[in-house]
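In this section we walk through a basic example: taking a raw amino acid sequence and producing a predicted 3D structure, encoded as discrete structure tokens. The instruction is simple. Fold the sequence below.
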Amino acid sequence: PLEVLKAQAILIRGYALKEASQGAYAAYGFDLDGSTEAAWPYLGTDSVSPEIRRAVQETESEILIDTSGTLATPVYCFSSGGYVADAQSVWGGTGEPVPSYLTAKPDFNPADVPEFPDAVSGFASDEDRLEDWLQSTPNTYDRDAAGSYFRWEVRFTDEEMNEIINAYWNGTVGEVRSLKITRRAISGHATEMEVRGSEQTVTARSSDMIREALNLNSSLIVVKERFGPGGGWI
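The resulting token sequence is shown next.
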């Protein structure tokens, strides 16, 4: 809808202005990184539809100011998985207050997910309830638009796990003996992960670190160790 595109145009304009004013990429000769790693993705002029152009033109010069009187810093994810994470749990605590628009929030109307009556309170301390949530496809706001990113499963062999963990920690972990989520945010996103290896035990202390260490779409995960079947007694 046009009004949704207008809202996005206003938010992205403010994001671009704030990023440019901070000069994070000035040394490289540009103002913004147009990838999902650092900003809202930009796919070039061929991806700009007439509807997008209209939304930009009809909101010309409009920006969003937060309650502190500064440019709002909106951030974007392709899919929340059903519960929006707060900024502090994703990137780690900075000691500064988190704006109200970047705190954890249910991404659904409770009336639309009657099978999970307690979901609105989050998943910080109930691993079984979180697993049930992730194994289902509740009627959240982003379920249909997210497609295969809404729910997914990744499997690693022992060799693959050793490789990705040691790649992230520069070969200092050794053979991975165990991997455990030790803390979660209210959204269910893992915010601390302990990896015990033959050489040392290491800890990832933010959702972003966990996602990068395991090369996953998100840290909204439940970790399961699986063993192969056997047969006979001889």
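Looking at the output, two observations stand out. The two ends are 67 Å apart (CA to CA). Strands lie at 83-84, 105-106, 176-184, 190-197, 201-204. In the next section we compare this with other chains.
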